[in-house]
Write a structure and sequence with these properties.
Largest sheet: 8 strands, mixed
Oligomer: single chain
Strand content: 15-25%
CATH topology of the largest domain: Rossmann fold
CATH superfamily of the largest domain: Response regulator
Radius of gyration: 51 Å
Distance between the termini: 146 Å
Shape: rod-shaped
Structural class: alpha/beta
Length: about 850
């Protein structure tokens, strides 16, 4: 912009009454406020009004926002830490909610003179850094395009009439969706939004934040079937519906209330017969909606209403008495009253005596209090427009707080923080460039404002999110209206039961105290199209058109769902299984021969101890009667080896009991195979000794040289060594190991031994069976040889028992799993060893213990 050109000498010829506030400074912040709500032109009632443009319907709330703006600048100028050596100034106009006035005043502020002079700067001191924008969607968009041409940053108070898509238009960085025309694109980068406000004398309304909070609230409660009642505003309703649909919330009905009584009755019928009792009242406060709700007697005891910030107005105008049955126990999403230190006294004590040159305060005293002003034109215009009688208030000690007490509302809070956001951005900008230069800052200011992040005097974080919106807070209130009457005519208990807060990560954080909410029916209702699918079930689509309406199907076998309304069921890990209700995965039970739980463990242990004791007893008797004929017969050494191997076989059973580990898996089969091979080899040696003895009894028989104990001992050693070699090779190449079988039995994990090399395992068993068969065949051949020392018939019976047991065990072994296969193997070991012990040694023990007279050589030879 250029400086001090002839257009700056022009004077304003406009007959309109203008409301201007100006203070010089090193940096100027422009302000456009809609304190007056509209403009009136009247040329039909005398020359005094002809072609005079006047503003009417002043808004005290907006005026106080303007005062908060001025208060913030004065406070910043007194702060030595923020913008030191820099004085902030302001240039403010009341636009009267008129787009033409807004554009005109924007050019005046940019020109720095009383008349708009495009492309010229007539400021004597201070550069305009940015604008606090007007409240009005159409005005905001037009100003955004104009101010962007001059690279000015505009921070916008968006009205409640504005679609939430405005933030898509003016948020920084959203250029990709626009065309190649630079003028259609560049204005988008220079505008930031604070939570929007109503134009009328009401409280803040941040639609984007409120809609997000409503959706989070519904999802937190688990409600997915709601209705909407709204004034005639289809665009906002459509956007809200899209947001809810994207969050899996279905809308039972949408009622746009109009002035049509017949239509209203139809809509009332629709609500009464609706399937949901959760109703969201969105949009601005509307008398039509209020009357509509009053007529809905069905809401008296059934529905739960969710209302937004504009409906706080019912407290101020006494509407609460009319709508008490409908809104009792309802939920309100409201802005918390956030006070500004020092501003309360500043605003409460505003009076014409303290601000004699304040044109807006003069209008407030004129219109709100009926006090005569010094401007006769205004007096006449007010009398004509409002048909009111004016009084002389001179000398009356009235302040603004007498009729409009300060409530610490968020509207002032955000207007105050807008100035501070610009100040912090300017402070950081001047700090970064590190030169005392204040001109030309407007081109860089926008990026600094977008990144500003500081704590205000209340300790709250102030920042702009990625959509260019200033952080906002909402609180969830539960209004309980008592039948008791107090001085206000109605007793209302407003409980804060939740809070919603924007965060720097772009999400809205919230916390809700469900236990503090009072519901109409004493417990939280469930507003859903159908009941939730319980854990153990999953959702499947139904025939209805709404996605929130579905059916429930039990989880298939082996799968669970642990939450309500699960989309899918999932399988448990291998080591877990579903519980009876398919709700959660529980650990599978481990299956093995446990000493804590299984009676088989106790039985096998007792049997092994008993048989081991019997074997030791027989071994002791054999040692005691070492020199008796019955012990000396058929090789005492082999007898002792046989008894020892039988004892070890009984003791091997303990390697099969309990929970297996790798070392027990390696030892139990090998030890069992070696001990059993020694046992069978000893039996084979005994059988061979009997066979050779009878062969050598014939005169001149060549078998006499083989009649020796060394032959039997050597046979035992050789046959046993073969089994030892097999086991050594088996354990070296592929030894057994512990494994978990999770598939054989549902709900069980079989802890068992994998035998490693199948060839090694069956070679061990096969060799042991081969020795048993050879022993049985030889014993069977010599079973009828006449001799009192002939053990062949006993050996035959023992091998018959041995082979029968193992042959019967094989199919059972192959058809069982888990601990039962181990039980079968233990049974076979104990039974076969007991058969050998009983068949071979019981007859001898009978003679030794009960017929000692038969245990002598003479009686044996008879």
């Amino acid at each position: 912009m250029k400086k001090a050109f002839p257009p700056c000498e022009l004077t304003s010829l406009s007959p309109a009454i203008e409301y201007e506030y100006y203070q010089e400074g090193d940096v100027i912040i422009g302000g456009l406020f809609s304190v007056h709500l509209k403009t009136s032109e009247d040329d039909a009632h005398g020359a005094v009004y002809k072609k005079i443009t006047m503003c009417k319907d002043i808004c005290v709330v907006e005026y106080r926002s303007l005062l908060a703006f001025i208060f913030a600048i004065e406070e910043i100028n007194e702060d030595s830490n923020l913008l030191p050596n820099i004085t902030l100034g302001y240039h403010i106009y009341d636009t009267c909610a008129d787009p033409k006035k807004s554009i005109k005043y924007a050019f005046i502020i940019m020109s720095g003179y009383q008349r708009e002079v495009p492309n010229y700067s007539c400021t004597g001191r201070g550069d305009v850094a940015g604008f606090v924008g007007n409240t009005g969607f159409s005005t905001t968009v037009v100003l955004a395009q104009i101010l962007s041409l001059y690279r000015f940053t505009q921070t916008v108070h968006v009205t409640s009439r504005v679609s939430s898509s405005l933030s898509d238009v003016v948020a920084p960085g959203n250029l990709e969706s626009w065309g190649e025309d630079v003028q259609d694109r560049t204005f988008l980068d220079h505008h930031l939004i604070v939570p929007p406000f109503c134009l009328f004398d009401s409280l803040p309304l941040a639609e984007e934040s409120t809609h997000s909070a409503v959706v989070k609230l519904l999802k937190h409660f688990g409600w997915n079937w709601v209705g909407i009642i709204t004034p005639s505003d289809g665009m906002r309703t459509m956007e809200f519906r899209e947001l809810m649909t994207s969050n899996a919330i279905c809308i039972a009905f949408v009622i746009i209330v109009t002035d049509d009584v017949e239509d209203k009755l139809k809509k009332t019928y629709a609500v009464i017969n609706s399937t949901t009792e959760a109703i969201i009242i969105c949009g601005q406060f509307s008398m039509e909606v209020l009357e509509f709700l009053i007529d809905l007697t069905s809401l008296d005891y059934n529905a739960t209403l969710i209302l937004n910030e504009p409906w706080r107005i019912i407290l101020s105008y006494g509407y609460i008495k009319l709508i008490t049955p409908q809104i009792n126990c309802s939920l309100f999403l409201l802005f918390p009253d956030q006070s500004i230190p020092g501003v309360k006294d500043y605003m409460e004590n505003i009076s014409p005596s303290k601000r004699p040159d304040d044109p807006l305060l003069e209008d407030i005293w004129l219109q709100k209090f009926g006090c005569l002003s010094s401007n006769e034109l205004k007096n006449n215009w007010t009398r004509y427009l409002y048909k009111s009688h004016l009084y002389n208030c001179t000398g009356m000690n009235m302040v603004l707080g007498d009729r409009y007490p300060y409530r610490g509302l968020s509207k002032y809070y955000y207007a105050y923080n807008v100035v501070y956001a610009m100040a912090h951005a300017l402070h950081q900008l001047l700090k970064d460039i590190n030169v005392p230069k204040i001109y030309g800052l407007k081109r860089k200011l926008e990026s600094y404002i977008a990144r500003v992040h500081y704590k205000d005097k209340n300790g709250e974080d102030i920042f702009f999110n990625e959509r260019g919106e200033m952080s906002s807070k909402l609180q969830l209130e539960n209004w309980i209206i008592s039948k008791e009457i107090d001085v206000t005519g109605m007793k209302i208990n407003r409980k804060v039961v939740g809070r919603f807060e924007d965060s720097s990560d772009g999400d809205m954080h919230y916390h809700i105290h469900l236990e503090n909410i009072t519901w109409r029916k004493d417990s939280m209702p469930e507003f859903r199209c159908n009941k939730r699918c319980l854990p153990g079930y999953r959702k499947i689509p139904s025939h209805r058109i709404h996605a929130c309406c579905y059916e429930c199907l039990p989880c298939s076998e082996g799968k669970v769902s642990s939450v309500a309304d699960a989309e899918n069921c999932w399988e448990c890990p291998d080591e877990e299984q579903p519980d009876e209700r398919n709700v959660k995965c529980i650990p599978k039970t481990y299956d093995f021969l446990s000493y804590e739980k299984d009676s088989l463990f106790f039985i096998f242990t007792v049997l092994s101890v008993i048989f081991s004791a019997i074997t030791l007893f027989i071994l002791g008797q054999c040692i005691y009667y070492w020199k008796t004929p019955i012990v000396k017969a058929n090789n005492r050494t082999v007898t002792f080896i046989l008894l020892t191997s039988i004892l070890l076989s009984f003791l091997c059973v303990f390697l099969f009991l309990g929970r297996t580990v790798d070392i027990t898996c390696m030892l139990r089969q090998a030890s069992f195979g070696i001990c059993f091979s020694i046992t069978v080899s000893s039996v084979l040696a005994k059988t061979t000794t009997v066979c050779i003895a009878f062969k050598a009894a014939k005169p001149g028989s060549p078998w006499k040289k083989w009649v020796s104990s060394r032959v039997s001992n050597l046979l035992v050693l050789i046959c046993s060594s073969v089994q030892v070699l097999i086991c050594v090779i088996w354990l070296s190449v592929s030894p057994p190991y512990q494994e978990y079988d999770m598939d054989s039995y549902p709900g069980k994990i079989l802890i068992q031994c994998n035998e490693g090399s199948v060839i090694g395992f069956y070679s061990m068993l096969g060799y042991m069976g081969f020795l048993a068969v050879v022993s049985f065949v030889l014993a069977f051949m010599v079973r009828k040889l006449p001799d009192n020392f002939n053990e062949a018939k006993y050996i035959t019976f023992s091998m018959l028992v041995f082979c029968s047991v193992w042959i019967a065990t094989i199919p059972a072994y192959l058809s069982t799993r888990g601990k039962y296969i181990v039980a079968m193997e233990i049974f076979a070991i104990q039974t076969s060893c007991a058969g050998i012990l009983g068949c071979i040694f019981m007859p001898k023990m009978y003679i030794v213990l009960f017929k000692p007279q038969l245990n002598n050589r003479r009686r044996m030879l008879e």
